[in-house]
Amino acid sequence: MKRPTPHNVPASGTYEVTDRLTKMRIAAPTFEQLLGKINHARSATGVVTGLDLRTELENWICEERPGDCTEVDMNIPRKRHLTLSDILRGTRVMVNFKLAGSPLVDREEAIRRGEICKTCPFNQKFDKPCTGWCPELSTIVRDIIGNQGLPIDAYLHGCGICGCFLPAAIWLPLELQCLGVNDSMKQQFKAIPNCWKVCESKE
Fold this sequence. Notes:
The protein is an alpha+beta fold. It has helices spanning 31-45, 53-64, 84-97, 107-118, 135-145, 166-169, 174-177, 183-190, and strands spanning 2-6, 15-18, 25-28, 69-73, 123-124, 158-159.
């Protein structure tokens, strides 16, 4: 499946779009900065952002400025720059889908998943303004898995595809996690050998 996606830096020198939810007109010199600005504006106004914000923003840009976009194969995994905001957003989505009393996978399965993620090229470090796990991230992880943790956590970072925090994600049932990912992400998971986070995708 191919679809248009924007270049990181537009030909005009500036990306400018209207957020369909907040109705705010936002501009930035790169795609990643525009994504960050929209996410910050939504957070400031109390608008909930899910994992589809990147896809939504790509669609808006390509609708408004087709010349700033190129067609890419969405089945091929694409690395992206990760920030703490990306990880918090991706991990909050898991919290939103976590049902009260929803069981975690057993320790053996969490370890198996962690070992797979440990060597995955999409196990990406992310920019953050603190050392270790920042307080807000620690709180979210505690909401998901309580006080459980594994030695392998030291080698796990953020998922470069969906933006979830891997030390928490490895504990959650797959069917629950799949509720929060879009079809493009599902196709990218499929393309990674031995990935445990493969979900059924709509054809």
